[in-house]
Amino acid sequence: MRVHVLLLLFAACEKCKSDSCSAEDVSMTYIHKQWKPPVQKFEKECMLETGLEQYVLNEFYESPDIPDNYHFKCQLKCYGMKMGILSSTGDINVEKWVDLFDYMNVALAEKCVQMVKEEDLCEKSYLLVKCVNDELSKQYPS
């Protein structure tokens, strides 16, 4: 019985790292906050590079939406490149993306990579994250 409960909790939370996680606790705002630790060490460096203002980044972490802001889009590109997820030619390392970010899985990442055909790397980064956000929003409505 205990194993079944643990398996159900794990399935509901996917890669949730919190011991107190339950399916009811998960929202897109919660997921956005879970995505902060992997990028945090690059945050200031990328903000200097992109000119992103802190309030725009805060909007992302405090809401279920993705800011439609060019500096934010380039912030995502900067993170992707610094983390080895995005190459300078626009290739995506799906395995690394999935390994680094909670709630990501290979099928979702590959679906978004196939859907997004964009040359501009800032826009591509944004569209990939938006695709993931839109798909996860179906599972975890806010």
TrEMBL record:
Coiled coil: none
Membrane spanning residue stretches: none
MF terms in GO: odorant binding
UniProt keyword terms in alphabetical order: Signal
Signal peptide positions on this chain: 1-18
Domain of life: Eukaryota
Family matches, as CDD domains: PBP_GOBP (cd23992)
Keyword Signal belongs to the record: yes
UniProt xrefs under InterPro entries: PBP/GOBP, PBP_GOBP_sf
Keyword Signal among record annotations: yes
Name this protein carries in UniProt: Uncharacterized protein
